[in-house]
Amino acid sequence: DAAHACVNESADEHVTRLLEERDTLLRTGVYTHDDRIISELDRQIQQAVSGRNT
């Protein structure tokens, strides 16, 4: 189903963008996995991944 494939593709892009954002912040050395912004990004990534698999 084409509409479903399109939704999955945008979900993949969303997850990729969140991962890149998190990794970029971690690479700066300013943030660690203990920082709230990183935890929030992790939560959003987890949510996006679990939503994508339904």
Record the SSE blueprint.
Elements: H1 2-27, H2 36-52
Helix pairs in contact: 1-2
InterPro entries: CEP120-like (IPR039893)
Features:
single chain; 54 residues; mainly alpha; 2 helices; CEP120-like
Task: Write up what this structure looks like.
- The chain is mostly helical.
- The protein has one domain (2-52).
- 80% of the residues lie in helices and 0% in strands.
- The longest helix is centred in the N-terminal third of the chain and has 26 residues, at 2-27.
- The model has no long low-confidence stretch (mean pLDDT 88).
Helical percentage: over 70%
Structural class: mainly alpha
- Domain count, please report it: 1
Q: Can you count the beta strands? A: 0
Poorly predicted regions are none
Order of helices and strands: HH
Tell me about the largest β-sheet: none
Tell me, rounded to a whole number, the average pLDDT: 88
Output the radius of gyration: 13 Å
| Binned strand content | under 5%
Shape: elongated
The N- and C-terminal alpha carbons lie at a distance of 14 Å
Tally of helical segments: 2
Oligomer: single chain
Summarize the structure.
By secondary structure, the protein is mainly alpha-helical. The chain has helices spanning 2-27, 36-52. The chain has one domain (2-52).
